[in-house]
Amino acid sequence: MVDLKGNPFYLKDEQIAWVNRTLENLTLDEKVGQLFCPIGMSTDEKALFDLAANKKVGGLLFRPGKGEEMQQAHRYLQQQAKVPMLIAANLEAGGTGSAIDGTRIGNPMLLAAGQDAEFGHHLGEVCAKEGSAVGVNWAFAPVVDIDYNFHNPITNVRTYGSDPETVLNYAKGFVEAVQQNGVAASIKHFPGDGIDFRDQHLVTTVNTLPLEEWRSTYGKVYSGLIEAGSLSVMIGHIALPAVQKSEEDAFLPATLSPVIMQELLREELGFNGVITSDATPMVGFCAAMERRLAVPTAIAAGCDIFLFNKDLDEDIRFMKEGIANGILTPERIDEAVTRILAMKAALKLPEKQADALLVPTKEELAVLQANQHVQWAKQAADNGITLVKDTADNLPLRPEATPRLLLQVIGPYEEANTQITSTVIPLLEKAGFRVTLYQPEDFTTGFESVSQFRSKYDAVLYLANVENRSNATTTRINWYTFFGQGNNIPWFVDEVPTVFASLENPYHLMDVPMVKTYINTYDNHQTVIEALVAKILGKSDFKGVSPIDPYCGLMDARR
């Protein structure tokens, strides 16, 4: 039984009437369509028409594009849809989750380092206002995982850190702000990532906490956000053995587990809103069960929305086969679709559809990079950048003392690294430094004397641009050269002042414990880079406080 008047829907009688009337008028095929939220592969109108008018999917997500293009695609989709669609985006760090010309405020860990939970609210407001300007009404955010395991390659700076109370406080502000501005939140990834060191894109991961410890950490966070009214929860491909009743199900991903979704989330935590799976092409889902069974089982077990597809036509066929063979009952379908329609009603999508206002006018795109949003981004950077240690008093760097500066940018993507250097080098040169950009040596040129090194460089600045990302098993540094050959690895920390700044992963001290000056910025967008350079030059104080253990428990890293 879905409580349409209670948390989180709070529907009025006329809204409930719309939900019931719409459900009654849907065919079985149309109900099945509502269960799916595929990823948009093209803004071509023929492809969009097929999704909205033929397959009648309940929602869609596009990867970020230009705001105007996204707005046009979303408008066309909604014009073709019989039932207004949920338009989703990964609005984790700002409006750039839906439009590349939006405002990036910063990764959640940057905000947590600033020690001002009001920035959770600011982030939610920016995400909602800029997202809704292009037609988005569903945020796949906030991330409420807890970053307990510094080896985890996918949580990392996407989280608010390793303290459950901090995660709850920031995420609560986000949920309240985003939903006050007409966009549904989706707290993720239940039952909680950050314990395992693996990634659900590649394998089903395991939250190994005993149940009582889970309740006092992840359970506390989810309970608080459910009470705050989050309209949806995203289920991760994460096992929680402590709650399972049989050894056979111990490592079943939550997306296929009725115990986790129905008994733990719905009954114990009291969640009444929409449950969506995480992306189902992930190996953490695909490898857990034969897909023709997994597709209907996910809905039968408790998911209301099935996110993304290996092949949409095939997954629709698998869903219908599951209905025919009894895996998925008509009653369960109606319950899931009722919740989906209730969330659409709570967002006032039927009224907006009637007034042709589901997607705003082109003029509304002016909110992208609004002055207030840009100022919040600058403030977040200034507040959050953290000086972890400076035991050799290397800061600030001054051109009169160390004019010849070797700059090293370390990261797997050349284009991203080039964007960093194009910002940093002009700022350093304007300050008076003569900057040499490191070029990897080969075996024949890799050895030189200490005297030769010191004759060329007075100081070294590292910028580690190693982002956490899907399908990466680690976010550690891959050096360009062999052991101490060349000048890549910081063998010279006792020869010249050496400053190491990580622009993303805050745990690099495990690999460079020898550096005496270490900084975490938690994000690599231009506003953060500019703020970092100002702080390195002594023009701005370091204000951030680490929301995690940057030393990774290593005593030698503190020296």
UniProtKB/TrEMBL annotation:
InterPro entries: GH (IPR017853), Glyco_hydro_3_C_sf (IPR036881), Glyco_hydro_3_N (IPR001764), Glyco_hydro_3_N_sf (IPR036962), NagZ_Beta-hexosaminidase (IPR050226). It is an enzyme of class 3 (hydrolase). Keywords: Glycosidase, Hydrolase. Its EC number is 3.2.1.52. Residues 27-342 form the Glycoside hydrolase family 3 N-terminal domain. GO terms for molecular function: beta-N-acetylhexosaminidase activity. SUPFAM superfamilies: (Trans)glycosidases. GO terms for biological process: carbohydrate metabolic process; peptidoglycan turnover. It catalyses: Hydrolysis of terminal non-reducing N-acetyl-D-hexosamine residues in N-acetyl-beta-D-hexosaminides. It holds the Pfam family Glyco_hydro_3. Belongs to the glycosyl hydrolase 3 family. This is beta-N-acetylhexosaminidase. It comes from Trichococcus shcherbakoviae.
